[in-house]
Structure formats: C-alpha cells, structure tokens
Amino acid sequence: MNYGPLLFLGILFTLAGSWFGLVLLPNQQLGALQPNVNTNTGAIYPQPIPGEAAQGREIYRSLGCNYCHTQQVRPDGFGADIQRGWGKRRSVARDYIYQKPVMLGSSRTGPDLTNIGERQPSYDWHYTHLYNPQTTSKGSIMPPHAFLFRTQRIAPDGPSTNALKLSGEFAPAPGWEVVPTPEATQLVEYLRSLKSSVDIPEAPLPKSEE
Amino acid sequence: MSQPATPGVLAALSPRDADTSSSRRAELAEIDASTSGTVLLFFLAGMVWLLIGTAFALLASYKLHAPDFLSGQAWLTFGRIRTAHLNAVIFGFSAEVAVGVLLWLMCRLCRVPLMAQSVINAAAVFWNVGLTVGIVGILKGDTTGVEYLEMPKYATPILFVAFALIAVWTIVIFRFRREQHLYVSQWYLLAAVLWFPWLYSTAQLLLVLEPARGTVQAAVNWWFGHNVLGLWFTPIGLAAIYYFLPKVIGRPIHSYYLSVLGFWTLALFYNWNGFHHLVGGPFPAWMITISIVASVMMIIPVVSTAINHHFTMVGHFGKLKYSPTLRFIVFGAVSYTVSSLQGVLSSVRWFSEVAHFTHHTVAHAHWGMYAFFTMTMFGSMYYILPRITQREWPSERLISIHFWCTAVGIILYVAPLSWGGWLQGKAMLDATVPFIDVVKITLPWLKLRTLMGLLLAVGHVAFFANLVWILARRFGPYRQPEPMILAGVTPAAPVGK
Amino acid sequence: MGIISFILIGSSLVFPAVALWALWWAGRHGQLAHADKAALLPFDEQEPVGRMTDVVLNRPKASKASHPPQGGPVP
Asked: Which stretch of DSSP H or E encloses residue C4?
C-alpha cells in the first residue's frame, strides 16, 4: 500500500465519518434545544442560574469538583441513581442547555450532585461540609476547603451572623470564629441552585411525585 | 573501501534504488544524525515532564486516601493536582516522546534527513512554554473545566502552533520520501499527524472558544478525548511496535495483509467510539449505541494486530533476555491487546452499568496509556538513543531497575484497581449501601495504587539517570566500544550509522 | 427524527460503497501486490533478516564462539 494520495484520502475520509456522525449530527439534533414552557403553570425550565450561583459555578469549575462528582442522573433501571435519591427522573439534554461548560463528570468518587440543592438545601450543612467534610460525613475522602474560609477573632460585640457552627475537634480556638469568604458563599449558592426535578415532556416525573 | 555488495533486499524491491550497502549505511548515518538534536530535545523535555507528572500523580493518589494532606491551599487541592498530572503526562511526556519517535521513524523509513531542524526545534520550545503556562494556569484555577482540554485559552494557541508545525513537517518529509515503498509504520504515523490537528482544532473551537449548546459539548468532548487516545497515541504506539519488534529480533512481521486490515479497520471504527464514555447519559439512544457497536468492532483490528505480533515473536522469546527495547515493546504490545479488550468490554451496557464512574475507568485509562503506550515509548527510546548519541547505555543495572519497577508497578496498579472499581460499582448499584461504605471499599485499592506509584517513580528516576548519563557521555570524548548495533559487522564495513 | 434517519441510512450505504470501491481500486492498481516484500523494509545488508540488532543486556562474553548461531545474538 504505497500510494500516498489514496492513503491521505482514506485517512481523512475515515475521520470525516465520525466528525459527521458524532459532532455534526448531534449538533443538529441537540444544538438548538429551547427551554420548556409548562402549559399549565407557565413555568420556564431550565433557566440560566442567577449571579451569585453563576460565580459559584466558576469556583466549582476552578477547583476541579467535577473530577469527583458527576451531574447526570441515569435512567431508572440502569444504575441505582434514582433509588439513591440522586434525582426523581433521569437527566436529559435539555437540562444542560444553559451550562458553560457542561460538567457531566466521569467519576463518582463522591455522590452525584445534579439535585443536591433539593437533597441538601441547608446553608449550615454546606458550609461545615466544605470547611471540613469530616464534620458531616465521617470517613469521607473529600478534601477540606478551609482556604474558602477565614478564621478571625470574634468581635467585641459578638460572633458574626454567618459564623460556622463547628464543634469538637473542628471548632476554632476559643475567641475565634470561622466565617465564609465570598467565594464560599457563591459556591454554596451554586450548589443550592442544583435542582432539576421538573416535569418536562421527554422526561416526566413519576406520577407519585407530581 | 568496501566489498562489492550483493543486491540487497531493497535493490530487489525497487531496481531503481540500486544503492550499494555502504552508501545506504552512510545515508542512514546521515539521517540519524540529522534527527538527533531534535529527537533528543523532545525526549529530554518529555522525560522532565514525566518526572513532574509522576510527582503530581503521587500527590493526587495519596490525597485520595489521606485527604487532609497538603489541603491548606487551593492550588494543591485534588481537583487541580489531578488535572495538572493528566496534562503533564499526556501533553508533556507522552506527546513529546511520541513526536520524537515519530520524527525518527518517519525520517528513517522515508530515507530523508530531517530538514530545517530549527523550525521543529522552535516548535518544541513553543510547546514546552505553552505547556508550562497551561499547567501553571490549571494550578491557579484557570482550568476550562473540559476534560483533556483543561489548559486555559491563553496557553493553547501556543501549543496549537507547535502541533501544526510538526504535522506540516512530517507531511513534508513524507511527501519528499526517497523510499517509494511504504512500511506499515508510516501509514500509522501519517494518519496520526493528519488526525490530531483536526481533532484539536474542532475541540478547541466547539468547547473553549465558541462553546456549543449544552450536551453537544459533552459529545464533542468525548469525540475528542477518546480520539486523542485512539487516533494519536495508539497509531504512534503501533507504528513503534511494528518497526521495533521485527527490527530487534531480525524477522519480518508475520503477515503484511493482516496489518493492512488492522490499519483500515482501526481507522474506520476507532473514531466512532467516543460516546461509550456517555453510556446512561443524557443523550439519544442512537448516539450511544453507535459508539458501543464501533467499540465492539474494534475487536477486529485489535485481534489482527495481536495475531501479527504474536506470530512474529513466536520462537524468539529468548531474545527478551538481551534487548531492553524488546522487553518494553513486547510488554506494550501485550498490554495493547489486553487493555483494548478491556475497553471493548467496558463499553457494553451491562458492564458499563456497573463500572461507569468508578476507578475501573481510571485503571483502564492507565492500562492503555501506561502499560501500552508509555512502555512502548520507553522501548523505542532504548533503541533510538544509542543510535543518535553514538553511545552505549552506561548502566545495565539502571535498565533492569527501570524495566522491573515499571512492569511490576503498572500491573499491580491497573489489574487490582480494575477489580476494585468493579467492586465499587457493584456496591454503588445497591441503593441500600450507604455511599460512605462504597468509598470505604475503594480504599485498599487506592492505597495499593499509591504504593505502586512509588515503584513507577523509582523506575522513572532510574531511566532519567541513565538518559542524563548517556547524554553527558555524548559531550565527552568519543568512546570505544562502538554501540552494540555494530556488533558483528566485519572490520571492512564502514563506520558510522 | 426523519432527516436524521435519512442521513444515517443514506450514509451507511454510501460509506461502505466508497470503501469497497477504494479496496477494488487498490487491488486493481497493484497496491496490495508483493506485500511480503514490503514487510522487509526495516532490513538491509548490515542488519538483515535473521540477525538480532539490539544486544544490550546479558551480553555473551567475547571469548565465546566467534560465529554465533543463526538468529542468535552477536558477541
């Protein structure tokens, strides 16, 4: 097989196949998806997430959270995602149309976070968990993110309103408190915004959940 | 003064190329010499990145079972260190050594010296600058968040220029080849340099510069990510095996027709595999199914390649005792077969339901990129370096340490972790098992991985030491004896290769 | 879904047809002839078939047999 041009054409032709089938065609089918408007309530889903949460998303991205956490719920009957309470329905393409980048994740060193905002709405839980995952999940291998917080002296007029409720070995020295930095607040707002249990035509919620 | 040459194999092949053996030897010497500076640059840079990448790897692996370790700073957090590791070993070590091997093989097989080395050397410098900027950017937190494309926008154009220059130069070498007949390695090398820029530019455009909408990004991401492995690294690895295996043992490849089949079926099927990374994901079923089918079809090129390699080696396994190149290449070839079959299995829905999202995937990735690709590259460097430095390897002991540490280290990393990942997946499928208990199941396998990582690191340091030593000798006085490749040549034959 | 089915079915007919044509063309124009000879390209006079070319480790002593057995390492 010595003929250069034939080789060249064959090489380009073969990649053209998947460029067409795995890049172009999916873009045709999925690239123009619009949000769904609920015919009964008029609610629009999905919507771009608001400012603080959007900034929190950037922090999630920059810390590499998506290397341990997925954001995709597999269908009922394929995996135990729904049984584990990670979502009421499977994830579909429309869930991701406003996300840049889409962080589906490829590894579940930690649990799936698609609906963490529904599962865990508590600010306190998120702050203490981020500060040191051992506080809420003993034995967790998630790293502590103390660098998202500031340990400071308690002011003369009393502790800050957003000081973390830490106890035991995790509490700071007496007279000191741990408060979230703006980055921590943004990240928590982002996590609290992760909710997708909305009824849409291609993925209706199970009847009992509506 | 040389003896009259009997018509060599090549004279029989192409009567026009009626070179005498001495002029051909001198030509090969000229070609090897022309590539030496550039190839050395890529090998040395690649090895430095291997050491850096190994350090990141050890840190990341340790943090997974000791999460408090060095957790006080954002730039050291697992999510960034793991990413820095991946980019350093893929775009630093693997790709740079791959380019060194690619250039040396292409020049040798095309019988053309490397032209305008300064241009490719400049590309090497660009590459390393871009990569450094990119990895520092990742540690700073400027990652794009796109797997395999994490380096920020300010670094990647520099890299793209380097890749483009190398691709163009390789095509030019190919175009002006003096050897009209093509060897199988050349098909793979040409294919790799044509495919990679297309993959990289599409991915950068649709994922980073002008991101596509929603899940189309994930589609493009995994088309790109899988094809970096299948259409860039795999062809270069196979090109190396197809050349060095016959070359070292002195016996041609078992079946040329089988290698034609292997090449075209790889080209046809491999690039459709991408979506097997998305089984169960938010995509229409047809996309996932097409990739699963293509993944299963990969059995054809993998088995034909395995048959070819095996029947070429059969009867010659005794030679493993003498040649480090052969050891690493055979290890790589067997690992190619095993990891590819593991990949086929992983893409099937019933397997993916269990193993997806687990450490099994990480183990598989290392089975391919390390046990196959990296070991093949080590073997290639062991063959090429003495021939371009005109020196023998200074230390046989370091070679043995390198081989045994890496061979044992990688097998005891990827096989146990594959099993650990399977167990993790089974537990995850059982909703009655609390997630924290799923995590606990993985811990012994992760600790074993760290231990094996240390063994790999020892192997890498041993090779790096030998590499620096052989280079240091290059600048010293010319030394006897001649490199081992001239062993057995009669005194009347010309010196220099 | 209609246009996609059309494209998928159409292309899955066109692609293999072109591939088979290319295979026929290659056969017709001698691309696949003398394939065994092409397998000999890595070899030459000094490093012919039958001689191992990379004896680095466990080298046999020079004092041993002056002429190695065919196919074996060269002292």
From this structure: helix C2-28
pTM for the model: 0.91
CATH at residue A141? 1.10.760.10
Cβ–Cβ contact B205 with C under 8 A: no
CA-based R_g, chain A, Å: 22
Say whether C35 and B256 touch across the interface (CB within 8 A): yes
According to DSSP, the β-strands at A36-37 and A44-45 are: antiparallel
CA distance A195 to B231: 38
A28 lies within 8 A of chain C by CB:
yes
pLDDT along chain B (497 residues), means of 10: 40 45 74 92 97 98 96 95 98 97 95 91 96 97 95 93 93 89 94 94 90 92 95 98 95 91 94 95 93 96 96 93 95 97 96 97 98 98 92 92 98 97 97 96 97 98 96 63 39 33
Cβ(A130)–Cβ(A166) below 8 Å: no
Domain that holds residue A53: 47-197
Chain B contact partners (≥3 CB pairs within 8 A) = A, C
For residue C34, which residues of chain A lie inside 8 Å, CB to CB? none
Taking an 8 Å cut-off on Cβ atoms, the answer to whether A6 and C25 are in contact is yes
Q: Taking the domain B20-181, which CATH number applies? A: 1.20.120
Chains contacting chain C through 3 or more C-beta pairs under 8 A: A, B
Interchain CB distance below 8 Å, B488 and C51: yes
Classify the complex by whether its ipTM is higher than 0.90, answering yes or no: yes
The residues spanned by each domain of chain B are: 20-181
How far is the C-alpha of B111 from the C-alpha of B23, rounded, in Å?
12
The residue type of B243 is Y
**Touching check for C18 and chain A: CB below 8 Å?**
yes
**Cβ neighbours of A105 in B, within 8 Å:** 357
Chain A residues whose beta carbon lies within 8 Å of the beta carbon of residue B267:
10-11, 14-15
